[in-house]
Amino acid sequence: MALIRQSISIPLPWLVSAFVGTLGGVIVGGIWFGRRVSEDWYLQGLQAGREEAKAKKKEKKDKDDSEISSEEEEESDSEDEGVPVERQDLDPFTDRNEECKLVLVVRTDLKMGQGKIAAQCGHATLACYKAFLRQAPDSPVLRRWERYGQMKVALKCTSEEDMQLLQAQALSLGLCAQIIHDAGRTQIAAGSATVLGIGPGPVSVINQVTGHLKLL
């Protein structure tokens, strides 16, 4: 049998079209695959970012709750701990038309924390104010102090003996003088004298008692 060889000639345009079609399919497939992988990575990264943000938010909330709880503990530890002196003879100082102030003398030997000091000073301020409302609600000294900004100055002393001496001097001049005693639930021993509030009173009179003390 005679073999007849016949060469098959494929037109060049067909070859080009086939090549271009194949190449296009590869490119389109690569783009689709790359986009799919990129989307997966993006979604995974987005989810991880959300979870991290949620974890940080929860951590911050827990920290804030802890700080609030600590502050509430400090405040409750100081609540109603003022031990007011027996009824004091408050001088109206009608002959002194000058600026008035309230001083808060803090014992530094107790090594109280800042939050503790703030709470104790708040109670000393309130104790002095209540003493005026109870004994001399119409005092011109109290009215001047309220009208002109309620000036307060924080000072320091180093012992309970010094604080008691300052209180005695203030009382002898007709000033309001209240010592706050702690309940002892945190930081310091029960009954500790923490802050002495003096005033409100004329600046020149209070300076006779506390003018030598340093600022807190």
Question: What do these coordinates show?
Answer:
This protein is of the alpha+beta class and 216 residues long. Among the domains are: 22-56; 100-215, Bit1. It contains 5 helices and 4 strands; from the N terminus they run αβααβαββα. It has helices at 12-78, 114-135, 140-147, 160-172, 203-210, and strands at 100-107, 152-157, 177-181, 193-202. A 4-stranded mixed β-sheet has the order 2-1-4-3, with helices on both faces. Helix 1 (12-78) crosses helix 2 (114-135). Its EC number is 3.1.1.29. Belongs to the PTH2 family.
Level of helix content?
40-55%
Strand order across the largest sheet: 2-1-4-3
Q: Quote the beta fraction.
A: 5-15%
And the CATH topology of the domain at 100-215?
Answer: Bit1
Number of helices: 5
Topology pattern, helix = H, strand = E: HEHHEHEEH
Q: How many strand units?
A: 4
Rg for CA atoms: 40 Å
Low-confidence residue ranges: 1-5, 68-85
CATH superfamily of the domain at 100-215: Bit1
Assign the CATH architecture of the domain at 100-215. 3-Layer(aba) Sandwich
In round numbers, the mean pLDDT is: 79
Separation, N- and C-terminal Cα atoms: 122 Å
* Coarse morphology: elongated
Largest sheet: 4 strands, mixed
Class inferred from helices and paired strands: alpha+beta
CATH class of the domain at 100-215: Alpha Beta
Supply database-style keywords:
216 residues; alpha+beta; Bit1; 4-stranded mixed beta sheet; 5 helices
Walk me through the topology.
Layout: H1 12-78, E1 100-107, H2 114-135, H3 140-147, E2 152-157, H4 160-172, E3 177-181, E4 193-202, H5 203-210
Parallel strand pairs: 1-2
Antiparallel strand pairs: 1-4, 3-4
Helix pairs in contact: 1-2
